[in-house]
Each structure stands twice: as C-alpha cells, then as structure tokens.
Amino acid sequence: MEIHEQLYPGDVVEMRKAHPCGGQTWEVVRVGADIGLVCQTCGRWVLLPRRKFARQARRFVRRGRPGINGEDEQVA
Of the chain's two ends, which shows fewer C-beta atoms within 10 Å, N or C? Predict the structure, then answer.
C-alpha cells in the first residue's frame, strides 16, 4: 500500500520498519521533493525522497492542517 494523499507539515505517519530506537511514528516537518521526518520517540530528523517515503509509509496516525506554512492560503 502506498500513500498518495496530499502531505502537510504536522502529519504523523506510521512507517513499515521501526527506527533503531524502536519508534514507528514520525511527524512530517518538511514537504517537497524530499520529505523531512522527525521520530516521535527519540527526536531524530531524517530526510527521505518522496518515492521512498510513499513506499514505506503504512498509514496516517494524525493529519496536519493545510495552510500551516502558507500552503493553500488565499491572499486577499
């Protein structure tokens, strides 16, 4: 199963493989060609290519808000 939904900073995802610290949940902190993730157990920051992230992500644990970093906001 691959995740094809829109990603937002603040999303928390569960990955297929556990981190060496034992944690499986990661928070998305950067969205672009690469996805920046922070381990919810130990705080380690990693950067994964979008394609590798899509294959390794299992499910969303919590969804972030659209527009948190200026995305999808309308300027009047």
Answer: C
Q: Whole-prediction pTM value?
A: 0.77
Alpha-carbon distances, residue 73 vs 24, 41, 46, 63, 68 (angstroms): 31, 32, 27, 17, 9
Burial of residue 19 (CB within 10 Å: 0-12, 13-18, 19+) is middle
- Residue spans of the domains in the chain: they are 1-41+52-62
User: Which amino acid is it at 24?
Assistant: Q
What are the tens digits of pLDDT across the range 15-41?
999 999 999 999 999 998 899 999 999
CB distance 65 to 8 below 8 Å: yes
Q: How far, in Å, CA of 15 to CA of 4, rounded?
A: 14
